[in-house]
Amino acid sequence: MNNDAIMVTGATGVLGREVLERARRTGAPVRALTRRSQLPDGAGVTWCTGDLASGTGLDEAFAGVRTIIHCATDARHFKKDVPAFRHLLEAAKRAAGVEHIVNISIVGIDRIPYPYYRIKLEGERMLAASGIGWTNLRATQFPELLDMVFTLLAKLPVVLVPARSACQPVAPGDVADRLVELAAGGPAGRVPDLAGPTVYGMDRLARTWLRATGKRRLVLPVLLPGKSGAALRAGALTAPSRALGRRTWEEFLAGKACDRAE
């Protein structure tokens, strides 16, 4: 069996789809993990059925895999992420060929005490202590996440956003490029963060999103209390010195406007 395969977890997600496409272009054997019914193979990808939450099917899926690019997460049921990551690490250690796990994480998780961020930080610690070669990349927020948040907020007459807070959206494709590049190299530990090309105030992001989607709402910046609010005002969601992403927020919104016009 070929022991040079790349496994992508979370391969049907926003980031995972982009990673899968780029991994396929490398010419290496590529596998994708799904907990649903196994999808048909094709375009250089072999689909494997396995469930990170229960650990079932992982031994078979990881056999012959050298590198795992771990994109799977569930922000809505994030308490499952720690046991899922534990199952992944245990199965990777049982698989003789796994030499490298490339993990995607989030800029600011060590500064903002959100429950989901604490879970992501615990995952980083587990990875570092696993005994397996590892690389960890933190990225800023995806435009798709902001789109989802603003869609929910715009259900009300007033869109509330954190005051004096900034965000630096980065395209999933740009993050996927970097993850596949890291997977091609050896374990590097925590690598420098990756951020989008521009830092925006949250109020500006909301207003430009509203214009692109044709919604009329008042945007009201609100001063958030506590450590989370202070961290946001200190720029915890941004990494200005790592503005290496190429696709802009405006390009994302242009796509939204085109979808609306069709």
From TrEMBL:
It comes from the Bacteria. Residues 10-141 form the NAD(P)-binding domain. This is NAD(P)H-binding protein.
